[in-house]
Design brief:
About 75% of the residues lie in helices and about 0% in strands. It is an all-alpha fold. The relative contact order is 0.09.
Length: about 130
């Protein structure tokens, strides 16, 4: 019986250290996928080694969704990219997986209540 308890405890500890929640794993992978130009659910499922349905179910259990996590990652990366004056707004849009500057601008406004150009001016003014 003692051996079984040890085995169960080891399995439990391994599961704690081995995996973050699925949303955290997805966030990390999406940042990589965006850089590779592949930020979609199918690509995420491939790298996470999950079926699409399993990913949906596990995200739902964490009260989130693929699209919500993708938006959060894009919003965070947008701020990081815009703080680099060497990157043009179109390059930032492309890095985030947007096909044009207009889509990126609309998304950025929905996240931060200002267009990316205004954010960049404000951020660069603070730094100088």
């Amino acid at each position: 019986m003692y051996g079984q308890l040890i085995e169960q405890a080891e399995k439990y500890l391994k599961s704690l250290y081995e995996k973050d929640n699925i949303a955290t794993q997805l966030r990390r992978r999406l940042a990589e996928l965006l850089a590779a130009g592949e930020a979609n659910a199918d690509a995420a499922c491939r790298v996470l080694l999950l079926s699409r349905r399993t990913l949906q179910r596990r995200l739902k259990a964490e009260k989130t969704s693929f699209q919500k996590v993708l938006r959060e990652v894009r919003a965070e990366l947008a701020i990081n990219y815009l703080s680099d004056a060497r990157l043009k707004a179109l390059e930032v849009a492309m890095l985030l997986g947007y096909s044009n500057i207009s889509s990126f601008t609309t998304a950025f406004k929905s996240w931060y209540d200002m267009p990316p150009a205004a954010y960049r001016q404000k951020f660069l003014a603070i730094r100088h």
